Amino acid sequence: MADVSQRFNHEVYNIAVSLIRKFDERVSSIPDILKLTLGEPDFNTPEHVKKSGVQAIEQNFSHYSGMAGLADVRQAASLFLKNKYQLDYDFQSEVLVTIGATEAISASLLATLEPGDKVILPAPIYPGYEPVIHLAHAKPIYLDTTDNDFVLAPEVLEAALKEHGEQVKAVILNYPSNPTGVVYTREQVKALAEVLEKYPVFVISDEIYSELTYDETHVSIAEYLRDQTIVINGLSKSHAMTGWRVGFIFAPEALTAQIIKVHQYLVTAASTISQKAAVRALIEGVNDAEVMKADYRERRDYLFEKMTALGFEMAKPSGAFYIFAKIPAGFNQDSMAFCVDLAEKNQLAIIPGIAFGPEAEGYVRLSYAASMENLVEAMDRLTRYMQSN
């Protein structure tokens, strides 16, 4: 029988399952393990949104929507963005409903990239972008932000754009950030936009955590750089709807017209039932994130205080639900070895920084999308580990 096992796209052999998922699976079998690993809200989807989903099933919304998604959900998403972030997108031609932000990322990258292109990413960064860049036969260029409190400085961005020239096709921004929780201020966003407007590059702005900012209102770079920007958002984090898989792409009509082709051939369309629930989330649940955000802020403050007392150094997160902390001096700076040892000895699972790139080595990420009771227990376990090593 002919062997086809080595005839895949060669880039497939060079990518791997995310280290976040691999580590989570590795430690899941440890008895009594307490996991602060995955970025999933511990809240349930709001009741009124769930009821809307049930009604959609009962009313037989079980057929395909159009490729771009139902008109009512696209209109609701457009209004949501306008009311929240002063962005104006025509729901008929500039909004796509996707299967979560993950598909939105894939569709945007596959639509824009060609073999040999380069993509600039601030590092450390969520590991979901690089594999798709490689599958498009393009190359990621990482800009280390660790010396600037995990914020991409405009002068660093401009230097990279000049160095790599016309090969740079896109710049990816993710803020509030996974893994650092860092939020960009209006001044920082404007400064980046002033650099980017001078170069013919796409700006893929992953703003999935936009509703989870604690101190300032989220500012989208599309406010300053609309014509170049592809905004990615969704309901997974803001409305605790990870399993519903509802994401959005917002982009100028000329860009959307191309991205929808890739979206169509990847997935045809998002779940119609989920879209009907999304309408309720975006209109009646426009402020559903506020209750969750208050709890997240309390949890953040608790972890920040406890971990600082243990010697961890970190930029205090202003958004999302992650603590990204430097392992104290005197402890194993190999983040994978540190996290494995912690899990095996004290039954606490946190993500090794190396999962977010070599720039993140020596760091760990904790998700505080967990109950306060679990966080208190987690800090007790971490304290015992640190004191015994």
TrEMBL record:
InterPro entries in UniProt: Aminotransferase_I/II_large, AspAT/PAT-like, NHTrfase_class1_PyrdxlP-BS, PyrdxlP-dep_Trfase, PyrdxlP-dep_Trfase_major, PyrdxlP-dep_Trfase_small
Protein family according to the UniProt entry: Belongs to the class-I pyridoxal-phosphate-dependent aminotransferase family.
Enzyme Commission numbers on file: 2.6.1.-
Keywords: Aminotransferase, Pyridoxal phosphate, Transferase
PANTHER family from the UniProt entry: AMINOTRANSFERASE, ASPARTATE AMINOTRANSFERASE
CDD domains: AAT_like
Transferase in keyword set: yes
Single GO MF descriptor: transaminase activity
Domain Aminotransferase class I/classII large intervals: 32-382
Protein name listed in UniProt: Aminotransferase
Cofactor names: pyridoxal 5'-phosphate
One Pfam family named in its UniProt record: Aminotran_1_2
Organism domain of life: Bacteria
UniProt xrefs under Gene3D superfamilies: Aspartate Aminotransferase, domain 1 (3.90.1150.10), Type I PLP-dependent aspartate aminotransferase-like (Major domain) (3.40.640.10)
